[in-house]
Specification:
CATH class of the largest domain: Alpha Beta
CATH superfamily of the largest domain: NAD(P)-binding Rossmann-like Domain
Distance between the termini: 61 Å
Strand content: 5-15%
CATH topology of the largest domain: Rossmann fold
Radius of gyration: 22 Å
Number of domains: 2
Helix content: 40-55%
Bound molecules: NADP nicotinamide-adenine-dinucleotide phosphate
Number of strands: 8
Strand order of the largest sheet: 3-2-1-4-5-6-7-8
Order of helices and strands: EHEHEEHEEEHEHHHHHH
Shape: elongated
Length: 254
């Protein structure tokens, strides 16, 4: 049995709570957050607390709080014996330097609190300051996921940069696609099979091999026609920037 305190009330905290709550080998001692209303998701099931000066004893404290607040929140845990971990991809383990035992428990996935997802296939990237804590964190990860992998702070930061490209930026491009459809009264959902297949292709091909489109083919006339159709200057700039990047990568002259 591993006992945990989850700190935070947002996307990651709520997903971790729902996942750990189903695991018989995990005891959620408490969910801790500064805002009682935001703690409502856990209220009926486990102890909740807004008082950071009354933290119960646990094996692991999971700080699922915003990147910028991790250091400040960690201060409240510096005298405790348990392992204190944060869940951030972009933040070094050093932010927990005042804690007796420190680690990282970074689930490499996008989470939204209204959408509870299974952790089974989500890689969980772990790191611990003391080698002897690694096994404990591995055991915690394995209760949720088939893929628990040791990754140091430098590698994790790089992984996070890559994640921003493949997730956050791609999603912003979806937003542009949705806006363009809306302007012409076209249902964006028509593009969903295309979106899904683009991701599914990566099961068998590399991103480089998967690339298609006018820029990759060198279809200059199509590129120019698209640029004439796009009304927003910002969208035209992005279209040109990305087309040039694809052209450069695939060595086509437009
Ligand atoms: N969302 C993702 O897809 C994702 C994926 C992997 C890792 N992560 C990482 O997981 C962590 C949490 O992300 P999230 O998306 O769950 O964030 P979020 O939904 O914005 O929630 C942030 C949480 O931090 C709390 N908080 C902020 N400042 C605080 C302070 N000074 N003291 C106490 N609590 C404070 C907030 O409390 P209140 O609501 O009470 O203000 C809230 O519970 C981040 O480190 C993030 O990088 C996120």
């Amino acid at each position: 049995m591993i006992s945990v305190v989850i700190v935070g009330t947002g996307n990651v905290a709520q997903n971790l709570f729902q996942a750990f709550y189903k695991v018989p080998d995990i005891e959620i001692k408490q969910v801790l957050g500064r805002n009682e209303i935001h703690l409502a998701f856990a209220k009926e099931k486990v102890s909740i607390n807004t008082d950071f000066s009354r933290i119960p004893t646990a094996d692991i404290y999971i700080l699922a709080v915003s990147d910028d607040s991790i250091g400040e929140v960690a201060e409240k845990f510096k005298d405790l014996d348990g392992l204190v971990v944060h869940t951030s991809g972009a933040t070094s383990i050093e932010v927990l330097h005042k804690c007796n035992r420190a680690g990282i428990f970074y689930p490499l996935q996008t989470f939204t609190k209204g959408k509870i997802i299974s952790f089974e296939t989500i890689p969980i990237c772990i790191e611990t300051k003391n080698k002897k804590d690694l096994e404990l964190l591995q055991n915690l990860g394995k209760t949720l996921s088939d893929t628990v992998i040791e990754i140091n702070s430098e590698q994790r930061k790089i992984l996070h940069v890559s994640a921003v490209f493949v997730n956050n930026f791609t999603n912003y491009l979806y937003t542009i696609g949705a806006d363009i459809c809306k302007e012409s009264n076209i249902d964006f959902k028509l593009l969903q099979p295309l979106i899904k297949e683009t991701a599914a292709k990566l099961d068998d091909l590399t991103p480089y091999e998967s690339q298609t489109g006018p820029a990759k083919r060198g279809d200059q006339k199509t590129v120019h026609k698209h640029l004439q159709l796009i009304k927003s200057t910002h969208q035209r700039e992005l279209y040109t920037l990305l087309s040039n990047a694809i052209k450069e990568k695939h060595g086509k002259e437009l």
